[in-house]
Amino acid sequence: xxxxxxxxxVVGGGYVGMYTALHLQRLLKAELRxxxxxxxxxxxxxxxxxxxxxxxxxxxxxxxxxxxxxxxRVLDRCHIVIGEAESIDHAKxxxxxxxxxxxxxxxxxxxxxxxxxxxAPGSISRTLPVxxxxxxxxxxxxxxxxxxxRNHVIEQMDIASSTRDPAIRDAxxxxxxxxxxxxxxxxxxxxxxxxxxxxxxxxxIKPQDLKWVLVEATGRILPEVGEDMGKYTVRELRARNIDxxxxxxxxxxxxxxxxxxxxxxxxxRTVVWTAGVKPAPVLARTDLPLDERGRIxxxxxxxxxGVEHAWAAGDAAAVPDLTADAPGRxxxxxxxxxxxxxxxxxxxxVASLRGRPLKDYAHKYAGSVASLGLHKGVAHxxxxxxxxxxxxxxxRAYHLSRVPxxxxxxxVLAEWTLAGLFKREIVSLGSLxxxxxxxxxxAGPKPPEPQDEASKGGTADGGAKSD
Length: 467
Description:
NDH-2, FAD, FAD/NAD(P)-binding domain, EC 1.6.5.-, FAD/NAD-bd_sf, alpha/beta, 22% strand, 15 helices, 467 residues, NAD
């Protein structure tokens, strides 16, 4: 009698999805080889993005291809499906998937069946109904956005250098970042550092001509590193002529003018939105229990609360923090917890398949590190507070140890070493976003469509109209 293989579906190929699948293919090596188990990973992109390196990629310190990890190479025993989960009916053990071929085929979404579900779609940018935001702002969650922002910043410097209109110049050299968390502060710090260096190669732009504004709705930035380090970060940024606006909101950015809640109007061609994230929309289209923030309710064993054969971790999951001083607290949605949760999740999933006892996830939060540009940073780790070069070095060392695969570690380390020996790259490759533009121009306009005889007003024999 031939038994059906155990079908494990992993929704999401980000940090949690990739690491969970990686642990599963190691723990189930014999089952995968014999065909008694199979793992399918559904992900919109064929790579995992190591998001803590996005600011350095935007600053040109790391090549974009070294910030991502190819899933087909790392998960060589898994079936990779490039697509998106539109909805999940766990009661029926089915997931509705759209792939890159869905529109071409014209047959509608694909129905995937499974036995065990790992749902880890991550998060998306949390936006607010700010007028003009969708038209003029850019996010900072993907490698495409990071590289696009680098190209955009250098392009604005080119515009400012070549224009004779002072209003256009001022708007081009004004950069507004909204959100004082990790993404906003690190992106601002790295790009300001890069732009200040780049200004030396422009004959008519000085570093003090560039205006950088950080807008934060609360009274502090970088709350993860503690209040003291947050205040130090504000002082450090202001010392670099960066305008930090606390307890201030972006009211509008219509017509390329950023209007702040304190009444300030900033003509600008650059608004970067990093004001938080929210769970992926697919979670709302499942029959799994969600909390008030839209995340999946989980137990300490990383199983979905009240549901069998469903597991979750990372940004999409509300996981109890067993190490917290006060009861009822949940693990912070950061990489420090996510990478450890994936190991426990995979071990518990395999243990459940083999009828073994499960274990709880418990990890005492170690602290946080943040980069503020080259050789500048802040850190609060195991109760110790660091700033400046030591914090920056710890930031690099920690994330180098966490970036997946030895291949990526070696490449990133090599790039950092070469960057210390040679000058920064100041090239903008904005044309990469429109690769066919030059060929379309070379190909010329389309030839006019042939007109039939009736449209010309003549007859088939070329004669005049009859009376």
